[in-house]
Amino acid sequence: MSDRGPPRVKNKAAAPLQISAEQILREAFERREPSLHIPKQRIADLEELHEFQGRKRKEYEDALRRNRLNINQWIRYAQWELEQKEYARARSIFERALEIEPTNVPLWLRYIESELKNRNVNHARNLFDRAVTLLPRVEKLWYKYVSMEETLTNVPGTRQVFERWMEWEPEPQAWLSYINMEKRYGENDRARTIFERFTVVHPQSENWIKWAKFEDEYGSPDNVREVYSTAVDTLHAAGDEFIDEKILGSWAKWETKQKNFEKARELYKYGLDTISRSRSMWLYNEYSAFEKQYGDKEGVEDVVFKKRKVIYEEQISENPKDYDTWFAYLAMTEESSQKADDIRELYERAIANVPPTTEKRHWRRYIYLWIRYAIFEELTTKDYEQAREVYKTCLQMIPHKKFTFAKIWYLYACFEIRRNNLAVARKQLGLAIGMCPKPKLFKYYIELEMKLREFDRCRKLYEKYIEIFPRTPQAWLDYADLESNLGDDERAQAILQLAMSIPGMNLEEQS
């Protein structure tokens, strides 16, 4: 029986002639069969030509009957007719294709190009009229149309085409092409009129800037200033959010070139006051560079102030109850020597943000805004009536039934004393003790009377103090010290003995 499987290789030695894969591929390529070529047909007479043309037309028509929506096939058919100099047939084919798909832009362009190549200008002009009437939003057709008219040096016709185009209010580049055409022929007045219509349709700041540059090149400084002024007024009337930093920065730079530095500074300041910080960073940098080059120390400081002001305004708009930001904002405003009315207005905005809860911890920073406001009115503006009104309004806002702030009562009393209104100061402190008694209020009141050497009043206050807070050891000790300092040791001893008689009282720990 023979073994199943592949035959055994008796000689495993290398073959004497080695063949690589590259040699196999090269040999296959050299021995390949020649490809089929369409034989060249030589047409000997007119009859053969007509026969050939009829056969080709039949092939094209058969292909179109199978798929009449294939526009490329129509274009190839028309192109073949053009090669045969059959212009009427080619036009017929293009027209048949347009009946199938009249909005095909490449088809219109090939049709028009074929007329132009054969110098059929009137035919091309008629086709352009039909195309732009049917497809007025296709800019390529308009550009080709005006290019053809200008190439033919038909300037009135070119202007007429542009006017038809502008009635559709196209994109800015179309308007600029119209303006550039007028500039090429020196029609600056016409270009100026087009700019007026252009900025009505597209009032973006970059378009106003282009108009201003045009006036700077071909007009007068008064025209440039009028363009910028009209631009800012127009954008401002539409809303401050439409005012762009570019228009103001461009105007300010132009004024700087005209050596009108004060006007440029006004424009920079107006932009920084009007435009939000997120949209005016470039304007800030330009203003800083302007002040460093043409301004003084005050101008540079003003730039820094305005930049920080915008930052604070954004932080406050995000969180109006951020009193630390209000403090920093107020300190910067006071240091920058701003008008008193502006600082007062900022204080009014700050104190209008009342804490939303009646927890004392939320009111601590808020009360210091009132204190700072009152000190500003007293020391800076010298408006004592306004300072008094600030103190009174603050005391009215505090919910004294839940908590109070002894410091504001004491500061108000000290203010009245400085104004020689001792009776009013005592009345306020007495009102505080009666409305919301606190040990600190008693200490403030007693300290005041001690400075005035009104010891009988001090005794009455201490008596009221220990009556309301009998378990406060410091009150008893201070009362005893007062009597001891006045030389009445027996009274001091009696006060201490009375304190010791209270259960749980330990005066030794306090002493």
Strand and helix map with partners:
Elements: H1 21-30, H2 46-66, H3 71-83, H4 87-100, H5 105-117, H6 121-134, H7 139-151, H8 155-166, H9 172-184, H10 188-201, H11 205-218, H12 221-238, H13 245-257, H14 261-274, H15 281-294, H16 297-318, H17 323-335, H18 340-351, H19 360-380, H20 384-397, H21 406-418, H22 422-435, H23 439-451, H24 455-468, H25 473-485, H26 489-500, H27 507-510
Helix pairs in contact: 3-4, 5-6, 6-7, 7-8, 9-10, 10-11, 11-12, 11-13, 13-14, 13-15, 14-15, 15-16, 16-17, 17-18, 18-19, 19-20, 20-21, 21-22, 21-23, 23-24, 24-25, 25-26
Describe this structure in words.
The protein starts with 20 loop residues before the first helix and ends with a helix. It has helices spanning 21-30, 46-66, 71-83, 87-100, 105-117, 121-134, 139-151, 155-166, 172-184, 188-201, 205-218, 221-238, 245-257, 261-274, 281-294, 297-318, 323-335, 340-351, 360-380, 384-397, 406-418, 422-435, 439-451, 455-468, 473-485, 489-500, 507-510. The radius of gyration is 48 Å and the shape is elongated. The protein is mainly alpha-helical and 511 residues long. The mean pLDDT is 83.
